[in-house]
From TrEMBL:
<dbReference type="Pfam" id="PF17032">
    <property type="entry name" value="Zn_ribbon_15"/>
</dbReference>
<protein>
    <recommendedName>
        <fullName>Zinc-ribbon 15 domain-containing protein</fullName>
    </recommendedName>
</protein>
<feature type="domain" description="Zinc-ribbon 15">
    <location>
        <begin position="19"/>
        <end position="64"/>
    </location>
</feature>
<dbReference type="InterPro" id="IPR031493">
    <property type="entry name" value="Zinc_ribbon_15"/>
</dbReference>
Length: 96
């Protein structure tokens, strides 16, 4: 007997801080990529399509879908912000 099916998986791909469109508070906005995988004996084998992107507010939990182009821009901005933050942490304290 062969057991097959599908399963959805979510992966966090980026985080930025800005005002939520739903609640209006400034909080972390997390971008998740949702993909459906073909499973064989409950193990994911290969994904179906490109998946979809969902933006979730860390404050209110509200979710909204995001087109792929917007998600790619969000990911690039998130990586740029993370690099700037890491560069700021490695600088010696001022006045020393």
């Amino acid at each position: 007997m062969i057991i097959f099916g599908s399963r959805s998986r979510s992966a966090l791909v980026g985080v930025l801080f800005f005002a939520c469109a739903l609640c209006g508070s400034t909080a972390a906005q997390r971008l998740h990529r949702l993909r459906t995988w073909f499973t064989l004996f409950f193990l994911p084998v290969f994904p179906f399509g490109h998946g979809r992107y969902v933006l979730q507010c860390a404050y209110c939990g509200g979710q909204s879908s995001m087109p792929r182009e917007g998600a790619e821009r969000f990911i690039a901005d998130s990586e740029r912000a993370q690099q700037a933050h890491l560069a700021q942490e490695t600088l010696p304290p001022s006045g020393v």
